[in-house]
Backbone:
DNA sequence: CGCCAGGTGCTGA
DNA sequence: TCAGCACATGGC
């Protein structure tokens, strides 16, 4: 057990905002995975209490994963440019964009397309149970996320039997790109947003939205602005009647919010799904 | 039961 | 470039 100073941070908002699919809350603690370790986390005020299955997991890993090194007040003030985002920030202040593993993020968001979060979580859990490695922490048992090698060799019908549906061949083909070195996934952390997105778009089952999610949640490209059905609803605030394509909304949002547009996206997404009062909901759509 | 879900790939204008 | 369509599956 160790403690991490976590000012300007909300574990709850961060882990329940749809950027990750493998954390679960039980009795006030969050159980999940970081690399190959199982973690149990609890936040009290500005302190994060951490229990890990692996003594190699340090305070620095926690700080990095939750992006506690970033100056959140500065980021939030840079995106706080209209009343809608202002309300979202007030409601979910402390939400941070995670620095997740690139491969896990890519694989997860291929599964996430045209899908709902409950089922995404189930699909990924079955994938891990069937092809990950067992890990445990005093009573809590789980499985690590399968490597690209573990998935690349599976028959498509095997992935379909885990409930992946038509995404099965996409995931397998993408795993093969990684294994064969045709998708240089380790390098993407060091190149810019545009290059990262272009590389990701070369994967089957990866379009604009998935590529932006992976760039943002897996490769620290904070200018990425994923547009899904919830963000289309959020963007009606700016374009109440005018018909806009997703590409149009994407370009507008990146200019409107600036270099940390991805943070704005995550606050708006979480706000649209959970944070609004009924008055706010009826003001624009849904 | 019908509708929806953190969309993508393909086709035809 | 853009609209329209098929696509698997399960929660609600």
Residues:
């Amino acid at each position: 057990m160790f403690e991490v100073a976590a000012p300007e941070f909300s574990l709850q908002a961060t882990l329940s905002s749809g950027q990750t699919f493998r954390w679960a809350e039980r009795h006030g603690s969050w159980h999940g995975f970081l690399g190959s370790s199982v973690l149990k986390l609890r936040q009290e005020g500005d302190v994060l209490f951490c229990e890990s299955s692996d003594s190699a997991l340090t305070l620095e890993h926690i700080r990095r994963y939750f992006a506690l090194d970033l100056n959140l007040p500065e980021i939030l003030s840079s995106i706080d440019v209209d009343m809608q985002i202002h309300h979202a920030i007030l409601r979910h202040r402390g939400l941070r964009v995670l620095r997740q593993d690139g491969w896990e993020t890519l694989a997860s968001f291929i599964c996430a397309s045209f899908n709902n979060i409950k089922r995404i979580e189930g699909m990924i859990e079955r994938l891990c149970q069937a092809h990950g490695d067992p890990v445990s922490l005093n009573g809590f048992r789980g499985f690590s996320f399968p490597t690209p090698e573990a998935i690349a060799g599976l028959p498509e019908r095997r992935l379909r039997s885990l409930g992946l549906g038509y995404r099965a061949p996409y995931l397998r083909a993408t795993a093969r790109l990684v294994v064969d070195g045709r998708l240089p996934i380790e390098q993407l952390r060091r190149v810019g947003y545009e290059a990262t997105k272009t590389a990701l778009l070369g994967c089957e089952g990866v379009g604009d939205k998935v590529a932006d999610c992976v760039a943002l949640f897996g490769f620290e490209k904070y200018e990425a602005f994923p547009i899904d059905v919830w963000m289309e609803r959020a963007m009606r605030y700016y374009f109440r009647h005018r018909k806009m394509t997703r590409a149009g909304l994407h370009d507008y949002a990146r200019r409107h919010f600036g270099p940390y547009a991805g943070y704005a996206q995550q606050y708006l997404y979480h706000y649209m799904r959970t944070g609004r009062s009924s008055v706010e909901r009826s003001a624009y759509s849904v």
User: Anything to note?
Assistant: The beta strands of chain A are 2-5, 24-26, 29-34, 37-44, 47-52, 134-137, 140-143. The domain at 2-69 of chain A is CATH 3.30.310.40 (TATA-Binding Protein). The longest strand of chain A covers residues 37-44.
